[in-house]
Amino acid sequence: MSVTIKDVAREANVSVATVSRALNGHENVAEAVRKRVMAVATQLRYSPHHAARSLSSRRTHTIGVVLPDLHGEFFSELMRGIDQVARERGLHLLVSSYHGDPAGQGAALRAMRGRVDGLLVMSPFVDGAGVVRDNLSPGMPAVLMNSSLAGADLPAVSVDNHGGAREMVRHLAGVGHRRIAFIAGPADNFDAAERLRGYRDGLVASLPGAQPWVLQGDFDEASGHRAGLELLAADERPDAVFAANDMMALGCLFALNHAGVRVPQDIAIAGFDDIPLARYVHPSLTTMGVDIGELGGRALRTLLDTIAPDDGSGAGDAMAPLIPQLMVRDSSIATTGGNRRVPATPDA
């Protein structure tokens, strides 16, 4: 005869409900009890019947993740954070990418219906919350990641992009740079818009009277390289270049290095995100550090609390943005003691 959940409960001297909560990763189970249940389940070789469990509970124990792209270190780190929490809770992930196409995003969201217990969605479009709302099945729990909240009654986790960009401008101005160019991200991208706004406000606060110098980018290395070539051809070059993400900063750095421009002696460079590669290029990249893995992990923890609320102790964390850390490295000013971390000042 196959081992049942009642057998596990009897051997562990707990209720069937406690066994279910322990095996499903709920937090309202004492750690000692959880370990005892898991040990008994392993000893008895108990294997939950997921199909039957889904029919009785109407849960799939699968979380949907809908992202604009899967390429690049940012999304790799984001998925690492999500996956770590999913494995801790015994959950599966169903991941879809819509390659930055709003229509594709809607199709991906609709394809998740009936297949997942909840959704993590990164909708970078300025009006992304509306796209999500219009394509979610009724009652589907969802958490937005770095998306505009306008018109959406959904919890969200985000990064203080505006405050981080202001802090970077303050740093660059503080080490003597006066002509600071900015490589912006896609015009319809929420993160990009907030970082551009922070750059402009940073100039007003740190360099009164300075004129914005904005070049268009697309959050990839190629667009950063094109922006670097454009700056090299300008009649007057900037003192510093602040790119809205690290990939564009690295593309610009390659263009300047190839042209024999010394960084940071001739032109300083800074980015945003602190992807793992940022510290290993030459010169190492000054950037605004974002704990991208924590962004993903926090999003999933928030979603799970929405699906099966505990005491609500973590509910406030969802609305409090992650504060970027200023990582001062060699590309903006020579350093001798490794990275210097400076928290960005959060927006009021």
Automatic annotation (TrEMBL):
Domain HTH lacI-type: 3-57
Entry keywords, A to Z: DNA-binding, Repressor, Transcription, Transcription regulation
Pfam families listed in its UniProt record: LacI, Peripla_BP_3
Signal peptide region: none
SMART domains in the record: HTH_LACI (SM00354)
Highest taxon above the source species: Bacteria
GO molecular function: DNA binding
Protein name per the record: LacI family DNA-binding transcriptional regulator
Source organism: Luteimonas lutimaris
